[in-house]
């Protein structure tokens, strides 16, 4: 089976290849991302549009991810990329630093589209928001702590073992194997 992963990120394609028993190819397509608080809805809509744009017989997968801070009602959630670009991680840390409960989660929804079928799969990694630490990773990694270590302090291999995207891809792999 061949799958098209709609992304410009080579790392996501490598991660998908690790989880899926399929030939995963990168499909560089800029679908219109709807504004929604629901990652699965965003990914599903992107997968439908991308499948149509691909025009072939191969199914497509699209992912959408975000950092969800519990006591901020899930903010920044699906708007994480925009918030990182506009406010930055330091400001998000300042917003969270006075919260009684700084629990958070990285969440991901992967949508699979094959003709009329669209299925979504979700993964999450629990943690908490802390003052920025570490030099690795990207995005909110320096302020997201899981088991005493920020994502920015972890090796890439360790972070990938915990991956919210990996957890969603694992569910997709199980579903594909059962089909």
TrEMBL record:
Domain of life: Archaea
GO cellular component, one term: cytoplasm
GO BP, sorted A to Z: nucleoside triphosphate catabolic process
MF term (GO), any: nucleoside triphosphate diphosphatase activity
A Pfam family annotated for this UniProt entry: Ham1p_like
Protein keywords: Hydrolase
Matching CDD domains: HAM1
InterPro entries: ITPase-like_fam, RdgB/HAM1
Similarity remark: Belongs to the HAM1 NTPase family.
PANTHER family found in the cross-reference section: INOSINE TRIPHOSPHATE PYROPHOSPHATASE (PTHR11067:SF9), INOSINE TRIPHOSPHATE PYROPHOSPHATASE/HAM1 PROTEIN (PTHR11067)
Protein's UniProt name: Xanthosine/inosine triphosphate pyrophosphatase
Species whose genome carries this gene: Halarchaeum acidiphilum MH1-52-1
Lineage: Archaea, Methanobacteriati, Methanobacteriota, Stenosarchaea group, Halobacteria
């Amino acid at each position: 089976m061949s799958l098209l992963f709609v992304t410009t990120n080579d790392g996501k394609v490598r991660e998908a290849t690790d989880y899926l028993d399929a030939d995963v190819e990168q499909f560089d397509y800029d679908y219109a991302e709807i504004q929604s608080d629901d990652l699965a809805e965003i990914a599903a809509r992107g997968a439908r549009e991308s499948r149509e744009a691909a025009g072939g017989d191969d199914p497509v997968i699209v992912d959408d991810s975000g950092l969800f801070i519990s006591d901020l009602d899930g903010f920044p959630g699906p708007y994480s990329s925009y918030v990182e670009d506009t406010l930055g991680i330091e400001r998000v840390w300042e917003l969270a630093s006075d919260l009684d409960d700084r629990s958070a989660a990285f969440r991901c929804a992967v949508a699979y589209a094959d003709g009329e079928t669209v299925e979504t799969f979700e993964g999450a990694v629990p943690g908490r928001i802390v003052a920025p630490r570490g030099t690795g990773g990207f995005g909110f990694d320096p302020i997201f702590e899981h088991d005493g270590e920020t994502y920015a302090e972890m090796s890439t291999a360790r972070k990938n073992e915990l991956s919210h995207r990996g957890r969603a891809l694992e569910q997709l792999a199980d579903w594909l194997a059962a089909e």
